[in-house]
Design brief:
By secondary structure, the chain is an alpha/beta fold. It has helices at residues 3-13, 16-31, 51-66, 87-93, 112-115, 126-135, 138-147, 185-192, 206-211, 223-228, 256-260, 264-298, 308-326, 330-345, and strands at 38-43, 71-76, 98-102, 151-159, 164-166, 180-182, 197-199, 217-218, 237-240, 248-255, 302-305. It folds into two domains: 3-161 and 246-288, Bacterial extracellular solute-binding protein, family 7 (D-Maltodextrin-Binding Protein, domain 2, 3-Layer(aba) Sandwich), CATH 3.40.190.170; 164-245 and 289-345, D-Maltodextrin-Binding Protein, domain 2 (3-Layer(aba) Sandwich), CATH 3.40.190. The chain contains 14 helices and eleven strands. Helix 8 (185-192) links the parallel strand 6 and strand 7 (197-199). Helix 3 runs antiparallel to helix 12 and helix 13 (308-326) packs antiparallel against helix 14 (330-345). The longest helix has 35 residues, at 264-298.
């Protein structure tokens, strides 16, 4: 059986809660002849032809399947309609009904979005971050934050850490002091607190800056994307997990008016399909992690597994930056307080 079919099988069977809901929703849609035909446009976060884009295609196909083909979403790759970091404005204005985005792009607009995207030195496992969203009020906070801007937050896609690619070995937080590192957004603010001279170069510039010695180490993306970019040629140390982005959430969001106009069952289908997509994509990334590490080893790279104690030691310092970021914003403070409380219950603070 081909890779595409295997991915589709995992997508359709992942997520017990989501699958159970889907099983109830499907006959409801199929039996109703009065439900309307709806056509939306959605811009994804990812470039066309990439593995993550495959999962967005599975998402829109799932929405169509569960509605008997009555709810169709035309999928566009990242940047095809608007630049990915401008998606917030596009969906708010109704230029597109729906986008997949990274909330960190909007953290300058509203600090709460820093805590619904990726928290440096935060949750160490995607299941922990997912539990915060679904069991500790995170989903309600995200929806309240977006509602102020005329946008509905459907659900997150949650997955694991991104690596750091370095020209020197990193075994402790002190190893980074005085070094030049490429980080962006919330991660840039936190890494500065550890004495890193932060460079916020565009993703496309990371390879060149490492090659030219402008930076000593960098965050860029996931292992697969970084391998495709050839970072093994210019940075011989791969540090995992990257403390700057230990877990990640990207987001399915929709124009509020367009969402409100949907029948309730279509709203349920969007949520089910998004949650299934999240589980399937994370499982794929987990399965590929050791394979990608071996590929970097085969190219002469040294893999450094960053000790949990190192990450735990950095968390109180990072928390000070978290507090500064959230200060004065009611929802951001609520998000942070609930996350810190949960992290302490999980034993992430020593």
């Amino acid at each position: 059986m081909g890779k595409k079919n295997l991915s589709r099988r995992s997508f359709l069977t992942s997520g017990a809660a989501g699958a159970a809901t889907a099983a109830m929703a499907l006959p409801t849609v199929a039996m109703s002849k009065e439900l309307p035909s709806v056509s939306w446009r959605m811009q994804a976060l990812w470039d066309g032809g990439t593995t993550p884009m495959t999962y967005e295609k599975l998402f829109v196909d799932r929405v169509s399947d569960l509605t008997g083909g009555k709810f169709k979403i035309r999928l566009f790759s990242g940047g095809q309609i608007v630049p990915s970091n401008k998606g917030f404005s596009a969906v708010r204005s109704g230029a597109v009904q729906m986008i997949k985005t990274y909330d960190g792009y909007a953290a300058g607009r509203d600090p709460v979005f820093a805590f619904t995207s990726s928290v440096p030195f935060g949750f160490t496992d995607p299941a922990q971050y997912a539990a915060w969203f679904y069991e500790r009020g995170g989903l309600d906070i995200a929806r309240a934050a977006y509602k102020k801007y005329g946008i509905h937050y459907i659900a997150p896609m949650i997955y694991g850490p991104e690596p750091i690619h370095s020209t020197f070995p990193i075994h402790s937080l002190d190893d980074m002091k005085g070094k030049k590192g490429r980080f962006v957004g919330f991660a840039a603010k936190v890494m500065e607190a550890f004495g890193v001279a932060v460079d916020q170069a565009a993703t496309a510039q990371v390879y060149t800056e490492l090659a030219q010695g402008i930076i000593d180490f960098a965050d860029r993306g996931g292992l697969m994307a970084n391998y495709d970019a050839g970072l093994y040629e210019v940075a011989k140390y791969v540090v995992v997990p990257g403390m700057h982005q230990p877990t990640t959430a990207t987001s399915y969001i929709a124009n509020q008016k367009a969402y409100d106009a949907l029948p309730q069952v279509y709203k349920d289908v969007l949520f089910v399909a998004a949650r299934e997509a999240s589980t399937a994509f994370n499982l794929y990334k987990v399965s590929q992690h050791p394979i990608m590490l071996q590929k970097f080893r085969d190219k002469g790279c040294t893999i450094i597994e960053l000790d949990q104690d190192v990450r735990n030691a950095g968390r109180p310092i990072a928390e000070k930056v978290w507090r500064q970021t959230a200060e004065g914003n009611e929802l951001a403070e609520k998000a942070l307080d609930s996350q810190v409380k949960f992290m302490k219950q999980l034993g992430l603070f020593s």
